[in-house]
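Recall from the previous chapter that SMILES is a line notation for molecules. Here it describes flavin mononucleotide.
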Amino acid sequence: MPSKVIAVNSSPNMDKGNTALILMPFLEGMRERGAEVELFYTKKLRIRPCQGEFRCVIETPGECFQKDDMEVLFSKIVDADIWVFGSPLYLSGVNGPMKILWDRMVIPMGEAHTEYKEGRSRHPMREGIKSGKVILVSSCGYWGLHNFNLLIEHTKELCFHTHREYIGSILRPHAYALKSLVEGGNQGDDVLEAARMAGRQLIEHGELSQKTLDIVSRELVPLESYVRVVE
Ligand SMILES: Cc1cc2nc3c(=O)[nH]c(=O)nc-3n(C[C@H](O)[C@H](O)[C@H](O)COP(=O)(O)O)c2cc1C
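With both inputs in hand, we obtain:
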């Protein structure tokens, strides 16, 4: 059976953005290895914020009373073997639309009661909610990979609370340099090819090689040409 992949890109720049630059080849690589990939843009969807009433846990398990595009998306998320979340880095985390989506999906998946194990609390998953893999794809404006640290931790927390396996992150720091190189037409191809390779690897081996991820995130231009270094 081919892997079912759901990808969501929350960038307001959608397919023209920096995040899409690395997300698209990554998804293409998965398709090349037979995965069924569906991509959604939060900007095209109407997803209201969670109202915090817990009706989806207590009154109508797994069902939100808000009737919006989350109805269709939620069933696809629950059904997918692999979740790919593409978000630009905003204030060291996901951007608003992605956070709204995460809030809307995590709580309805769980049982009403919480379990406490090894010093941590979480809801057990409701019956029928399958497990699977999660990949983060992100781009940022600042220079270094460390800018993604909080976002990676947050994504791991999402995995913990949805009982899913965090596989890794495809990250593009100083992303504006990639955009201008690619638009210039003669450099950065290895970065896009590595993103595509990561997609193939994920479907073939169920994991991402660090060597491939390092190429996606590689230094593209001299630091001094991208930022003003101050003492
Ligand atoms: C509101 C806002 C907050 C941002 N915060 C950060 C940040 O904390 N760190 C960073 O490196 N870049 C930050 N950026 C830059 C974006 O991460 C960067 O422009 C990203 O590549 C945009 O992706 P997109 O073209 O797919 O929308 C921010 C941009 C905006 C608009």
